Amino acid sequence: MNKNTFTFIGFDNDYDESNIVVFGSPFDGTTSFRPGTRFAPNTMRNESYGLETYSPYLDLDLDDYKIFDGGDIEFPFGNVSKVLDKIEDFTKEILADSKIPLMIGGEHLVTLPAVKAVYNKYNDLYLLHFDAHTDLREHYMNEKLSHATVVKRIWDFLGDNRIYQYGIRSGEKQEFDWAREHTILTKFNYDGLESVVEDLKDKPIYVTIDLDILDPSFFSGTGTLEPGGISFNDMMNIIDAIKELNIVGADIVELSPHYDSSGASTAVACKVLRELALAICYKKG
């Protein structure tokens, strides 16, 4: 792969020497309320230069690791299945070269093909899902492929008790009822995460962070605002906890930068991405 000409800060190493490959999936074709997440990856690249490469939270520096930014996947307009296929194929290419995919969405449906690709390599995979929404609908407006159904579609192949959900505060009653039997769902916060990390330390883990887990008073630049979320410092505590895991794939999704003209939400997203990348580096080196 050729390096993107415009990279996220600290992600400017060559592909062959890098352990982590960052890429954008600028797709919001099933967004049900306010679209705009397709603009997140490049907006984040631009705004990332307001950050330092050093994290005082984890005491780690991006300059000490090899991370490659492959740019954005080019998608056809109006064909959801082809979009998902392109994400899955791109992720498989990264995995085939023994590297870790780290995706910038895009809406949350982009997580489905990335997890499929990782599951193809690690069939004992577990999913950690941080979000305001359950995303467990069987269909939305008669469509089975939607950002509102993404975790249910992942359950279709992962199965029971392999999906841990945190921060959930919105969804249909049927979704919460269904989750009691099939996923491990924690409402409103991330209580119990540290013990789960201890239990899953030796398992391959995919981490998906829907940024609307954050309270909109901290993060207003998203398509479906849901009051009552966690704080930015809570998010840093989450990332500090999961750095102990064997993370074999990850993503952050659902920044819609133009809904926050101050740029604060994009700055938050950039910092979450930096910390998540460094959390992966903590175990992988």
Report on this structure:
- The protein has 285 residues and is of the alpha/beta class.
- It has one domain (20-284): Arginase, Chain A (3-Layer(aba) Sandwich).
- The chain has eight helices and ten strands.
- It has helices at 40-47, 80-96, 111-121, 150-158, 173-182, 193-199, 232-242, 264-284; strands spanning 20-25, 54-55, 60-61, 67-72, 100-105, 126-130, 163-168, 184-187, 204-210, 246-253.
- An eight-stranded parallel β-sheet has the order 4-1-5-10-9-6-7-8, sandwiched between helices. It has a two-stranded antiparallel ribbon with strand order 2-3.
- A hairpin with a 4-residue loop joins β2 and β3 (60-61).
- α1 packs across α8, α2 runs parallel beside α3 (111-121) and α7 packs parallel to α8.
- The chain is globular.
- The model has no long low-confidence stretch (mean pLDDT 95).
> What is the strand content?
15-25%
Domain count: 1
How do the strands line up in the largest sheet?
A: 4-1-5-10-9-6-7-8
Mass-distribution shape: globular
Structural class: alpha/beta
Instruction: Determine the CATH superfamily.
Output: Ureohydrolase domain
Radius of gyration computed on alpha carbons: 17 Å
CATH class: Alpha Beta
Largest sheet: 8 strands, parallel
Low-confidence stretches: none
N- to C-terminal separation? 21 Å
- Indicate the CATH topology: Arginase, Chain A
Estimated helix fraction: 25-40%
User: Helical segment tally?
Assistant: 8
Count the E strands.
10
Write down the secondary-structure element order: EHEEEHEHEHEHEHEHEH
